[in-house]
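User: Hi! I'm working on a homework problem where we have to compare a predicted structure to a textbook description. Could you give me the structure for the chain below?
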Amino acid sequence: SADPLVRSLTDAGRLRVFQVADSDGQLGATGGIDIDPATGLLVRADGTLDPAVHAAGIPVDEVVHDTIISPMPGTNPTMLRETDRVARSAVRIALHAASVSPTVPLARSSA
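Assistant: Happy to help. Predicted structure tokens:
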């Protein structure tokens, strides 16, 4: 990818390109980012989920179709369902992180 963030995440093994199988079963890269559709978390090169990085929108359209179509009134648009899933996942991760005691003190006592 020409995008420095995508390239950096890929080089670090924290992101893999989404692939689809052709009629012969051969996998081909789509150019999109592979995510867990339930949370929007990135799928790492080893197939595990990245614990913190989410993606939504155009880069994941191959995985979650219709994510770039503007919502129309009175519908249940994919784009808003996708952003809701990502937001719920991000809040869950933040709440979990806030409930875990740090192993290193955040500030030194002045006493």
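For your comparison, note the following. Residues 78-99 form the longest helix (22 residues). The chain has one domain: 4-99. Good luck with the assignment!
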